[in-house]
Amino acid sequence: MYVDPEAAGKGVPSRDVLLVSAIITVSLSVTIVLCGICQWCQRKLGKRYKNSLETVGTPDSSRGRSEKKTIKLPSGGKMGNTAPMPGQTQHDESDRKTEPRSSVSDLVNSLTSEMLMLSPGSEDDEGHDSSSRENLGRIQFSVGYNFQESTLTVKIMKAQELPAKDFSGTSDPFVKIYLLPDKKNKLETKVKRKNLNPHWNETFLFEGFPYEKVVQRVLYLQVLDYDRFSRNDPIGEVSIPLNKLDLTQMQTFWKELKPCSDGSGSRGELLLSLCYNPSGNSIVVNIIKARNLKAMDIGGTSDPYVKVWLMYKDKRVEKKKTVVMKRCLNPVFNESFIFDIPTEKLRETTIIITVMDKDRLSRNDVIGKIYLSWKSGPGEVKHWKDMIAHPRQAVAQWHQLKA
């Protein structure tokens, strides 16, 4: 390196030294500025990320409101066609722009989620299937014996959580009282219209019964659903041997209802399939076959055929029926019927399947019935849900015929 002798002698730095110093100064300044910018960016980005997290987790966000409304149960009143369904998510305009969905698929999805939430036995079906099937409600009653008057007193007080037996989603319950094994002499309560938690508060007297005979009897209570146009549907029963009770004073009991001993199994079974077409607004009902039907004729056989009623709310809309199969308890029908059902009316729709015995000389006999809707029994509701969940597919299932 060249050094000016005069400058060196005077202690003045050379041009190279000044150039290096300037470069170092500029580098330090740039480094400081860049560090400041980075810290500012980090603060801004961190604040923005924090705000985004707070927005997602805020209950007031549109996503939070939709999820809460999806799981909200209905109030129980009748809904018009314009009212939103309990399982239907309401989106604002921004949601509709970013997530376009067809109205038909929207409604099908809402119906499916609603049925999963509201239908009987739908909550944890695998773990609680047996308990849900036995949930027939319970009944409260009192029993006592008057030794001086040789009279047994039975008071039917009330029932709770009875299952719906009518296609309207309710029942018309009443109670029959027997002292088994005597089935001829019975007493009955009044019918409580459209009530799943009826109160009767009616007292019944069995007079002239010595105590030694009373303790040989079984108190049998049968709860039924009154039907004006056909046989009454059994709901459940309670049996108590009177020798196991202290009859010296009136005792009050709450008893769970059990399936009636003359239940639907003896009436036979019916195999049918349902196919829902949301784009065509229709349901195809295929009556496939039946087995072990109850013999209704003197010769130990039946002449079965099947009636299919389409019901909307409480009104009969359309009826179709199969051909009659002569002298057969295991008939094969394989007949399909198409019913036009708008998607918005699906919630209020019920399909009633009735297996009949044709009689040439008298009135045709009812062998058994099946009510298909989202608010029927556990087996029927499962079939209905499977139909909704698998559109345009035929879903087949066996059903026990009920009285």
UniProtKB/TrEMBL annotation:
<dbReference type="GO" id="GO:0030276">
    <property type="term" value="F:clathrin binding"/>
</dbReference>
<dbReference type="GO" id="GO:1990927">
    <property type="term" value="P:calcium ion regulated lysosome exocytosis"/>
</dbReference>
<dbReference type="InterPro" id="IPR001565">
    <property type="entry name" value="Synaptotagmin"/>
</dbReference>
<keyword id="KW-0576">Peroxisome</keyword>
<keyword id="KW-1003">Cell membrane</keyword>
<comment type="subunit">
    <text>Homodimer. Can also form heterodimers with SYT6, SYT9 and SYT10. Interacts with calmodulin (CALM1, CALM2 or CALM3). Interacts with CD63; required for localization to lysosomes. Interacts with APP.</text>
</comment>
<keyword id="KW-0677">Repeat</keyword>
<dbReference type="GO" id="GO:0005778">
    <property type="term" value="C:peroxisomal membrane"/>
</dbReference>
<dbReference type="GO" id="GO:0030670">
    <property type="term" value="C:phagocytic vesicle membrane"/>
</dbReference>
<dbReference type="GO" id="GO:0006906">
    <property type="term" value="P:vesicle fusion"/>
</dbReference>
<dbReference type="InterPro" id="IPR037741">
    <property type="entry name" value="C2B_Synaptotagmin-7"/>
</dbReference>
<keyword id="KW-0966">Cell projection</keyword>
<dbReference type="GO" id="GO:0030424">
    <property type="term" value="C:axon"/>
</dbReference>
<feature type="compositionally biased region" description="Basic and acidic residues">
    <location>
        <begin position="90"/>
        <end position="100"/>
    </location>
</feature>
<dbReference type="GO" id="GO:0017158">
    <property type="term" value="P:regulation of calcium ion-dependent exocytosis"/>
</dbReference>
<dbReference type="GO" id="GO:0030100">
    <property type="term" value="P:regulation of endocytosis"/>
</dbReference>
<feature type="domain" description="C2">
    <location>
        <begin position="135"/>
        <end position="255"/>
    </location>
</feature>
<dbReference type="InterPro" id="IPR035892">
    <property type="entry name" value="C2_domain_sf"/>
</dbReference>
<feature type="domain" description="C2">
    <location>
        <begin position="266"/>
        <end position="399"/>
    </location>
</feature>
<dbReference type="GO" id="GO:0030672">
    <property type="term" value="C:synaptic vesicle membrane"/>
</dbReference>
<keyword id="KW-0479">Metal-binding</keyword>
<protein>
    <recommendedName>
        <fullName>Synaptotagmin-7</fullName>
    </recommendedName>
</protein>
<dbReference type="GO" id="GO:0001778">
    <property type="term" value="P:plasma membrane repair"/>
</dbReference>
<keyword id="KW-1133">Transmembrane helix</keyword>
<dbReference type="GO" id="GO:0001786">
    <property type="term" value="F:phosphatidylserine binding"/>
</dbReference>
<dbReference type="GO" id="GO:0000149">
    <property type="term" value="F:SNARE binding"/>
</dbReference>
<dbReference type="GO" id="GO:0005516">
    <property type="term" value="F:calmodulin binding"/>
</dbReference>
<keyword id="KW-0112">Calmodulin-binding</keyword>
<keyword id="KW-0812">Transmembrane</keyword>
<keyword id="KW-0770">Synapse</keyword>
<dbReference type="GO" id="GO:0050796">
    <property type="term" value="P:regulation of insulin secretion"/>
</dbReference>
<dbReference type="GO" id="GO:0048791">
    <property type="term" value="P:calcium ion-regulated exocytosis of neurotransmitter"/>
</dbReference>
<dbReference type="GO" id="GO:0005509">
    <property type="term" value="F:calcium ion binding"/>
</dbReference>
<dbReference type="Pfam" id="PF00168">
    <property type="entry name" value="C2"/>
</dbReference>
<keyword id="KW-0106">Calcium</keyword>
<dbReference type="GO" id="GO:0005544">
    <property type="term" value="F:calcium-dependent phospholipid binding"/>
</dbReference>
<keyword id="KW-0472">Membrane</keyword>
<dbReference type="InterPro" id="IPR037732">
    <property type="entry name" value="C2A_Synaptotagmin-7"/>
</dbReference>
<dbReference type="GO" id="GO:0005765">
    <property type="term" value="C:lysosomal membrane"/>
</dbReference>
<keyword id="KW-0458">Lysosome</keyword>
<keyword id="KW-0597">Phosphoprotein</keyword>
<dbReference type="GO" id="GO:0051050">
    <property type="term" value="P:positive regulation of transport"/>
</dbReference>
